[in-house]
Design goal:
123 residues, alpha+beta, three-stranded antiparallel sheet
Length: 123
């Protein structure tokens, strides 16, 4: 027969295990959100760099920095830096995007991504 003084100890252990599982699940969800934001930032940086490099190689009259800003915004990011001087065939852009609300971390987290596109006209 079981000891009556040990009756509630199983409940405490179950509550502890459930709490640990909940915190771990929230942590995994936060990591997933951060990874999605990083992928979104990389895609935005790639798009901005490619559009800027195309403008540098085949000018249409638009400012390369404005074009990079536009493509970054279309992909949910903000342009942080653009090394895309007219006359060069090399575009380096850096973008930043917010991770969004998180469960265990602060809501002001953001990720940055950098991309470079070079036009090779010799090909």
């Amino acid at each position: 027969m079981s000891d009556p003084s040990q009756r509630g100890s199983v409940s405490i252990v179950v509550v502890g295990v459930v709490a640990i599982a909940l915190v771990a699940s929230l942590g995994v969800a936060d990591v997933g959100k951060a990874l999605v934001a990083r992928a979104r930032a990389r895609a935005a940086a790639d798009a901005a760099a490619l559009a800027t490099a195309q403008e540098l190689a085949l000018p249409t009259g638009r400012d390369p920095s404005e074009l990079a800003t536009d493509y970054a915004a279309r992909n949910g990011a903000v342009l942080s830096a653009c090394a895309c001087a007219s006359g060069s065939l090399d575009a380096v852009v850096e973008v930043e995007t917010s991770v969004g609300p998180m469960f265990l971390a602060g809501d002001s987290l953001s990720v940055r991504a950098r991309a470079r596109a070079v036009v090779d006209l010799a090909a």
